[in-house]
Amino acid sequence: MTRAALLVCPASGKGRAARIAGSTAAALRPHVSELRQLVAHDATGTLSLARAAVADGLDLLVVLGGDGAAHLGVQACAGTSTALGIVPAGTGNDLANAIGSHSVEDVVNGTRKTLDLGQLSTGQWFATVLCAGFDSAVNERANAMRWPAGPRRYDLAILAELASLRSAPLLVTTESESFSLDATLVAVGNTPNYGGGIPVCPQADANDGLFDVTVVEHASRSMLMRMLPTLRTGTHTDHPAVRTFRAREVSLSGGDGWVAYADGERQEALPVSVKTVPGALTVVGR
User: Fold this and answer.
1) Is the same domain home to 197 and 171?
2) Is residue 171 located within the same domain as residue 59?
3) Does residue 244 lie within any of the structural domains?
4) Co-location of 189 and 234 in the same domain
5) What is the extent of the structural domain holding 17?
6) Which of 24, 156, 200, 209 is the most exposed place for a label (fewest CB within 10 A)?
């Protein structure tokens, strides 16, 4: 029998998680032998509750929230036998989409599978994309915006950040090579999407033991504006200013103060180093 906990982040989706917490618990309860309902009102509390539940030998941790809440669930479940399920109730829901979890039904009727994770030298885990440069500045702005909800928030943040666009010298080091370039953004993908469904690393596969890395070299505002529509289709990788490669380990330095974001969450200023950890997370999804 399955011992489960439902971790509710009430603020996710402008309160949507709080509104559907009762119905979500009711839908889960017939499918598990035990269901604890955990409610936290900030990131510190969420992570503390998640880690305590996992340490108690929980079989399944179901996160009701957005990518920020899912990121905290990843920190608790990574490297353990506890499976992570997600009932999406946030803005982007990129991790939920990556594992095929769009509803309670996908959690209760889904299958268990393992995913690779990325890990920073700080010990932090990430499941989707780590980025720095223009795209992390967009994340900073989008996180501060109160309107609109959904992917449109990222679209408006992109347009706003174009006004202050600048490239910076970037040193990229992998397990096999090192190169310098003048860059506008860099994205290290464990899965393809960030920002509410933007396939910045369209070929990324969370089961191949490798990151897919996308680097946009120096780009003018007009060039980036022409490139932006192709980001939604993943065809930006055909642009001559875009460089892609695969690696198990990636270190990024330079950037003139660029801050790294992972799973849409602020991490630290460059330099940062990340590595893939195959099969580090068990998830439930379609």
Assistant:
1) yes
2) no
3) yes
4) yes
5) 3-109
6) 209
- The answer to whether residues 69 and 175 belong to one domain is no
The pTM assigned to this predicted structure is 0.91
Position 196: which residue type?
Answer: G
DSSP states of the chain: --EEEEEE-TTHHHHHHHHHHHHHHHHHGGGSSEEEEEE-SSHHHHHHHHHHHHHTT-SEEEEEE-HHHHHHHHHHHTTSS-EEEEEE-SS--HHHHHHT--SHHHHHS-EEEEEEEEEETTS-EESSEEEEEHHHHHHHHHHH--S--SHHHHHHHHHHHHTT---EEEEEEESS-EEEEEEEEEEEESSS-BTTTB-SSTT--TTSS-EEEEEEES--HHHHHHHHHHHTTTGGGGSTTEEEEEESEEEEEETTS-EEEETTEEEEESPEEEEEEEEEEEEEE-
Q: Facing residues of 139 across strands?
A: none
Residue 156 lies in a domain: yes
Instruction: Show which of 82, 109, 136 is a domain's final residue.
Output: 109
User: Do residues 22 and 159 share a domain?
Assistant: no
In a domain, 286, yes or no: no
At 158-205, the pLDDT tens digits run 778 887 778 899 999 999 999 999 999 999 999 999 988 999 999 999
CATH number of residue 207's parent domain: 2.60.200.40
C-alpha to C-alpha distance for 165 and 262, rounded to whole angstroms: 21
